[in-house]
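Hi R.,

Here's the chain you asked about this morning:
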Amino acid sequence: MAAKKLLIVESPAKAGTIKKYLGKDYNVLASMGHIIDLPKSQMGVDLENDFTPKYITIRGKGQLLSQLKKEAKKADVVYLATDPDREGEAISWHLANALNIDPQSACRVTFNEITKTAVKNAMKHPRKIDMDLVDAQQARRVLDRIVGYTISPILWEKVKRGLSAGRVQSVATKLICDREEEIENFTPQEYWSLEALLNDPASKKDFTARYYGENGKETKLNNAAETKSVSDDLKNAKFIVENVKKGQQKRNPQPPFTTSTLQQDASRKYNFQAAKTMQIAQTLYEGVNLGGKIGSIGLITYMRTDSLRISDDAQKEAVEYLTNEYGKEYVNPKQYRTKKSAQDAHEAIRPTSINIKPIDIKDKLTNDQYRLYKLIWERFAASQMASAVYDTMQVTIDAGGHTFKASGSNVKFKGYMTVYVESGEEKEKKEKMLPPLEEKSELKFKNLEEKQHFTQPPARYSDATLIRELEENGIGRPSTYAPTISTIVSRGYVARSKRQLVPTELGFVTSEIMKNNFSDIVDVEFTAGMEEELDSVEEGNIQWKKVLNEFYPSFRDSLEKAQKNIEKIKIKDEESDVVCEKCGRKMVYKLSKFGKFLACPGYPECKNTKAIREGTGVKCPKCDGEILVKKSRRGKVYYGCEHSPKCDFMAWYMPVKDEVCPVCGGLLLKKTGRAGKIYCYNEDCKYERKAGDKQ
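And here is the predicted structure, written out as tokens:
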């Protein structure tokens, strides 16, 4: 017998998980994201007819849409359960129109987590499609389309084909370029520090005190002469403890993750790019088969959110678990205040059940899934725990009229830090307590260290710091951070250097054009204001076409001026040392959507191209060829022989240069990270050592 009810979700993985919960009465199918959208080949917005969008069935999705129509006709009722956000609401609206479902009927189902309880409960409370959410998505989509499809052709004509401009990506590129200019224009300022190594005779313990100033007033040491003058004064000085201040300090846990804070912490702790974090989080949300009685279950709540709220049920479960695991004194349940602009219909990112401990399901997850789930689980658990308490001591020391200060702390009660430690707290928690010093006691002087320093320029942005900057300035929303960074890198405006985002010449040129001709588009405050207007559409306070009508007239004027004023710019391709074997020219670096490659500058006469070869300088243990740095189809770095596929040498970890295994003389590999080690490639040889240790 055919299923009476049809439920349409976005992904096949989600469909498989939900089908097991709902049983034989339901047919669960996936739309594979958007089925209907604006065309790629043209703007698809009628600027002369009140910004009417021209929606089409996406190329390649016609057969899927036909299948959905066929199944919808068979079903007694159709439910639309796409993702619980603006984008998901718009997909449901398009599906409703395509399948002849009344958007005002109770056809829309949303769930924040994919668990049996959440899904079954959601099915009991279908609602009509939220047109305010749909209109907010339409406004954003049309606005971005107008900006991108009108500025990009100007950039193609004046600079280079293939360039693009975007409402959020242009601001992000400008931020990175502005930071680079700050760094280039930075003038280092010299300063010095003085540190005294002292000994407390009573406890016989050493500690370090830092020079503060004269007679209790802070004094800067600006150069070597000033520092030497103080050092000379201290030669015969007695170091006397002048003041001891003891106290306690609380350190509060952080709230559970939002999209941006998850991306930031995963970047800092695991060096995950924002797009990778979201890809892994998606798999955890859609469902993982844990086997046994549990079967397939979504492990985390919806991962695109800026809300800090958690459900009462989740909090109750957390309190019970934490009390049993750690004791009442470690538990302090709380709700965190969410910023005004957040979509509070969602929860924060949390495990769907705190009782599913990361270690218990490690063998069911990939390594990256495990690490990200563990991070989410620990952060949520810690958010419902008591503050950590430190005993602190601050000491002022007089040395012949010169003041030194020292401070120390010691964990009295670990609280939430039993479970989770912030990225920045890892170094701090190693700080030691000072000896039990008494006022008026004399300390034994052991050594004085003079150090020259220079002020440092601001750091380049990383994924984590750029996301934080965008969020703090109200630019973009949870769903846009990762794609924005991916776009500016793939377009060649920004390059990655280790964890840093570095602007290219192309990025500088494009950003300068945008600043000079489209100042509003790259203005942080203007862009943040547009985000607020889009939020107002979602709240039902403003019509979406009104936003566009207010934006477009001045933007159209800027377009006309830019077309006249921008002069043609020739960006010279970066030359390599590689000689084209076909015509003898030096090849240049080019960029495609797959990354950098080498091309002959003689195009179209010479069309020679080749992949960039990145050597390691290490010989292959199987054939004496050079081991090269390579990338898998999914972009993961590995190491393979230059003679591949004839030679099958392959390793996931970096070969060690200028060193061989001291036991068997074989190739050594270096594994990085917390469990970093250097070990022998030869499986029969068991040699290994910690990465930091010398041979």
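One quick note: The two ends are 70 Å apart (CA to CA).

Cheers,
M.
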